[in-house]
Amino acid sequence: MAGPLGPEYGTAAGRRAKDSCSYCQPVYASPMILSLVGTKGVTLTPTAKQKVRPDVFNRIANGLLVLSVVFSPVLAVAATPDEAKALLNEAIAFYETNGKEETFTEINNPNGKFVRGELYIFVYDSEAIIAAHGADSSLISTSMMNEPDENGKFYAREIMQVGESGGSVDYVWLNPVTGTIQPKTSYIMLVDGFRFGCGVYK
After folding, report:
1. How far apart are CA 158 and CA 74, in angstroms?
2. Fewest CB within 10 A of the end CB: N or C in the chain?
3. From start to end of the chain, where are the E strands?
4. Do 24 and 114 share a domain, yes or no?
5. Are 166 and 188 in contact (CB under 8 A)?
């Protein structure tokens, strides 16, 4: 009886057909990977690698892709206070060299140099109106003075109290990487009447 590739695999012709079929050629995957994606019908042994058919391998690859999408926010490494302060200093140095217009344009660019994962720069003017925002440009020109965070804290009022020596403010805000509201500490610097900020989530 002819199989999908011609003669039965038990015959010499069948074995040659099977050997030339890329669909049937075995590939290798570790037992841990096989168990993660639930490869039904594959018997796991303590050996370092397992032979699997390409269709099973494709299922493994697709499963890993799904896992990477689902868990990427969890696996993302949180930024550190030092990284936030360094990015803030970079933005201020850029401002002092290139001026307001070019700096604010760069800050507002989601693919620009001042957006790095959960880190981004925001700028308040002297009236607590957002002049630039790296995570949400829709907030530009919005007065934040009377806008509380999710816990009811009027954090912008504290931001506006930060003087030339700089400071930090704690509040809760949306993390653009995880998509959840999280506690945040923002570091603030006052330059030419603008308060530049960059914060880390906890």
Report:
1. 31
2. N
3. 27-29, 50-52, 115-116, 119-120, 122-124, 130-133, 167-174, 181-191, 194-201
4. no
5. yes
Question: Facing residues of 190 across strands?
Answer: 195
Residue 134 lies in a domain: yes
69 with 133, same domain: the answer is no
Indicate the pairing of strand 50-52 with strand 194-201. Answer: unpaired
Is 196 or 18 the better-scoring residue by pLDDT? Answer: 196
Give the residues across from 174 on adjacent strands. 181
Structure token digits, residue 196? 């530049």
Q: Is the pTM higher than 0.90?
A: no
- Quick check: is 6 in a domain? no
Helix (H, G, I), strand (E, B) or coil at 35: helix
Residue 109 and residue 27 share a domain: no
Q: What φ, ψ does residue 185 adopt, rounded to 5°?
A: -115, 120
Q: Does residue 26 register a pLDDT over 60? A: no
Cα 7 from Cα 25, distance rounded (Å): 17
* Six token digits for residue 54: 């390409």
Contact 131, 137 (CB under 8 A): no
As a whole number of angstroms, the distance between CA 20 and CA 15 comes to 9
* More confident position, 44 or 155: 155
Q: Is residue 27 included in any domain, yes or no? A: yes
